[in-house]
Design the sequence.
């Protein structure tokens, strides 16, 4: 690892720790309780974890094998993070599609707004890296591509949320027609 | 198999899926899945639903077995 990479990694860690601390303090002060899930949602989440775990495992193995056999122009940290994000994406996507991602209250607006913000911030970061020509370092997709991965993950989740909402609205119309 | 008895009992009390779901502490989608027969609820949830709708477990959830064809 070069000095720049270690510095960037340290910065990321610091940001994550500060964010966790802020969320913890806000939740504690506002008396917010964690989201509750019903029995069906917990079962779905269990299945989602399984799919997510296997997706991560298989992609990590594939990435490891490819790293051994080919000269992939991707920073190893980006590759491993992509595998982890794939696992998270599979879990989240499955849970969203099966109505088990948001809790009983169905209060999903804040989460969706947060997701949109995360996508915007990361896309802006990627654009700034492209403009500064720092996305690819020495012919290798650098650690700054993590922002692109993050944007891609949350964008995919948003797409699944929109598709699911469209499906629910269609199903509601159909059931109303059946009732009439 | 759709649980039409549950749907009818809910409609008789003029309750929406959301209202029944709130009363028993589950999401609307879970209640929808139970009515559509996509999810088999636990006995605990069945009892909660029965209590809210004023019905017995038999009335809402017991399925009469179809008589097997005589040989």
Sequence:
């Amino acid at each position: 690892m070069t000095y720049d990479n270690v510095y960037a990694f340290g910065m990321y860690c610091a940001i994550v720790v500060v964010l966790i601390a802020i969320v913890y303090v806000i939740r504690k002060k506002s008396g917010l309780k964690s989201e509750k899930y019903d029995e069906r949602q917990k079962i779905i989440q269990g299945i989602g974890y399984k799919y997510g775990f296997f997706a991560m495992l298989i992609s990590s193995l594939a990435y490891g094998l490819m790293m051994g056999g080919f000269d992939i122009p991707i920073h190893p940290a980006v590759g491993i993070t992509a595998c982890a994000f794939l696992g998270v994406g599979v879990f989240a996507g499955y849970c969203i599609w099966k109505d088990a991602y948001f809790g009983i209250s169905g209060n999903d607006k804040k989460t969706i707004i947060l997701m949109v913000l995360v996508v915007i911030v990361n896309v802006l970061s990627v654009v700034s890296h492209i403009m500064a020509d720092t996305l690819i370092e020495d012919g290798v997709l650098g650690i700054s591509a993590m922002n692109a991965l993050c944007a891609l993950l949350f964008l995919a989740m948003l797409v699944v949320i929109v598709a699911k909402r469209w499906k629910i609205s269609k199903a509601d119309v159909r059931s109303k027609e059946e009732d009439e | 198999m759709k649980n039409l008895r549950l749907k009818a009992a809910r409609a008789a009390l003029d309750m929406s899926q959301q209202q029944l779901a709130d009363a028993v502490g589950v999401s609307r989608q879970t209640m929808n899945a139970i009515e559509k027969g996509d999810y088999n609820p636990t006995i605990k949830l069945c009892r909660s639903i029965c209590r809210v709708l004023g019905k017995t477990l038999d009335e809402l959830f017991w399925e009469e077995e179809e008589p097997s064809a005589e040989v």
About this structure: The longest strand of chain A covers residues 136-137. Residues 146-179 of chain A form the longest helix (34 residues). Chain A touches chain B through ten residues (CB under 8 Å).
